[in-house]
Amino acid sequence: MFDVEKVRAEFPILHQEVYGKPLVYLDNAATTQKPQSVIDAVRHYYERDNANVHRGVHALSERATASYEAARDKIRELLNATSRREIIFTRGATEAINLVASSWGMTNIGAGDEVLVSEMEHHSDIVPWQMLCERVGATLKVLPINDAGELCMDQLDSLLGERTRLVGIVHLSNALGTINPVKTIIEKAHAVGAKVLLDGAQALAHLHVDVQALDCDFYVTSAHKMYGPTGIGMLYAKEALLDAMPPYQGGGDMITMVTFEKTQYNDLPYKFEAGTPNIAGAIGFGAAVDWLKKTGIDAASAHENDLLAYATEKAKAFDGLRIIGAARDKASVLSFTIKGVHPHDLGTILDREGVAIRAGHHCAMPVMQHFHVPATARASFAAYNTRGEVDALFAALTKAQELFA
Predict the structure, then answer these.
(1) Residues with catalytic annotation?
(2) Is the pTM of this model over 0.85?
(3) Closest Cα to residue 38, out of 62, 10, 59?
(4) Over the stretch 13-70, which tens digit does the pLDDT of each residue have?
(5) 36 phi, psi to nearest 5 deg
(6) Which CATH architecture group holds 39-293?
(7) How many angstroms separate the CA atoms of 81 and 377, rounded?
(8) What superfamily in CATH does domain 4-26+296-403 come from?
(9) pLDDT per residue over 204-249, tens digit each?
(10) Pick from 203, 289, 219: which is nearest to 29 by CA?
C-alpha cells in the first residue's frame, strides 16, 4: 500500500497555511517540492564538504568530488545508460536541449535539412531548433495534435524523410499530460536516418525510463521536476555522438592541456562541463534519485493516476468546465478552462483559498493556439497529493465560479 501521509511527512514545506488555509500544492508540473533528504544532502555539502570538484587534493575536495560523481552514477543507473560518460550535468532540460542544438546540430544540420518537432512541445524544444534552422537554412516541421491532445501519428510517416536530421519529442506533455508513443517515433525516425531527442522533464518523476530499451539518441531532464533542486539537470546522449560533438562551452575542467597554439579537450563527460559546476545541485539531484527509488516510481505513479482519475471525474461533472487534453495515455496533469472566468483570475482566487495551481500558457503557446484559448488553469499531481486536496481544489473552483456568476 502507498502511504501518502508518510510521504507527506517528508516534505516540510507542505505543513503550512496560506492566507489562513492549509496549503494545497498542485503546481507540480512547474516544480515539485523537496523532501527533507534532498534538503539535508544540499545542506550537508555546504556545511561539511564545500569545495571545488576534480581540482583539489585536500579532504573537502575529495569528498565533494566523490558525492558529485556518485550523483552521476545514480542518474546513469536510473536511466539504464550504458556508461557514466553518457551523463552530462547541465543547468536543466533547457540548457541540455540548447547544448544538443548548438553542438550536434551545428555540426550535423545544414541548408535544406529538416528538424521535426510536435505541436505540443514546450518552448524549450521549439525555440532552440528554430534558432538553429534560421542560422543554417534548415526547415522546422511540426507533427500536429488532435483535439484529444494526442499526436497525429498517422501523419508521422509523411513528415519524415531523407532530409530529416532530428526529431524532438516531449515524453510527457507539461500542458496536457499526454504520454507520447516515443518508442514507435524513435523506430520510425531511425528508419530514415534521423536522431531523436526526448524531452523528459515531466516524465522521469512519473515513468520508468530505460534509454537503452528506447534507443533514443538524446534524453534531457531537470531535477527540480523530480523532487530535486533547481538549477541542475542532465543530458543523456549516446557515447559515440558525444565523442564526435564539439564542446558547447570553453573554460576550466573541460580541458586536459591548453597552450596559445592549441587546446586539448577533456574526456567525456567533462568535455561538456566547463567551469565550476552546480556541485550542491548535483548532489541534491542524486539524493532526489535516491528518494524516488526508495518511494517507488510504480507505487507513486499508481497513486498519482488515481488522483488524476478522481479529479477528471469531478471535472466532467463540474458545470462550465472544459478539460483541455483528454489523451488515452495520460499522467499527472489536469488542464482546464471554466466558462466566464479567465484562468489568471482562477489562479488568484484559488490562491486565497490556499490552493496553488498554474494559470497561463505553460510555455506551450502552440497548444493554446490549437485549442483556441489564451491560457488554461492547470492542476498537476505529485506523490504527496491526496484526494482531500482534489476536493479542496473543486471547492475553491466552486467559490470562484460563484464570484463570477
Answers:
(1) 363
(2) yes
(3) 10
(4) 999 999 999 999 999 999 999 999 999 999 999 999 999 999 889 999 999 999 999 9
(5) -60, -35
(6) 3-Layer(aba) Sandwich (3.40)
(7) 36
(8) Aspartate Aminotransferase, domain 1 (3.90.1150.10)
(9) 999 999 999 999 999 999 999 999 999 999 999 999 999 999 999 9
(10) 203
